[in-house]
Specification:
This protein has helices spanning about 10-25, 35-50, 85-95, 100-105, and strands at about 55-60, 65-70, 80-85, 110. By secondary structure, the protein is an alpha+beta fold. Strand 1 and strand 2 form a beta hairpin. The longest helix is centred in the N-terminal third of the chain and has 18 residues, at about 35-50. The chain is globular, with a radius of gyration of 14 Å.
Length: about 130
């Protein structure tokens, strides 16, 4: 069985700071794959720590999938409650620059199942550092 890694707040803040300019300005240069992966993974693990459980699966391909939200545990096949999005949209959600409703309305976020939207209660996960 894989070891579940917890969230390190300092590491999460540093990872988000590394991609902050790109999040604020869609025209800015995209961060490197390693920096992007670190920001996505640390924020997703923060969500799993703040909203523990296994009722909802949050997927941010190709970097991470975490289970969160207390309730019935899903163990096999496709989970009934899934949130899936791209890395940039996830980070915008995680930092509060985009709401779950706005991301879903824009088609940048796919939610299935009656409990998927419950992750909104845990967002934002980390404050975006100040400009500069």
């Amino acid at each position: 069985m894989a070891v579940r890694r917890g969230a390190d707040p300092a590491k999460t803040r540093a990872a988000v700071a590394a991609v902050a300019q790109w999040l604020r300005d869609a025209g800015a240069a995209e961060p490197g794959r390693a920096e992007l992966a670190e920001a996505v993974r640390t924020t997703a693990r923060t969500l799993a720590t703040l909203a523990p459980g296994a009722a909802v699966e949050v997927r941010v391909p190709p970097f991470v999938a975490v289970q969160c939200i207390s309730g019935p545990r899903h163990t096999r096949g496709n989970p009934p409650n899934v949130v899936e999005t791209d890395p940039r949209t996830w980070l915008l959600l995680a930092t509060g620059l985009l709401s779950l409703d706005d991301a879903a309305a824009a088609g940048a976020l796919r939610m299935s199942g009656s409990r998927a939207a419950e992750i909104a209660a845990a967002l934002p996960l980390v404050a975006l550092p100040g400009p500069g």
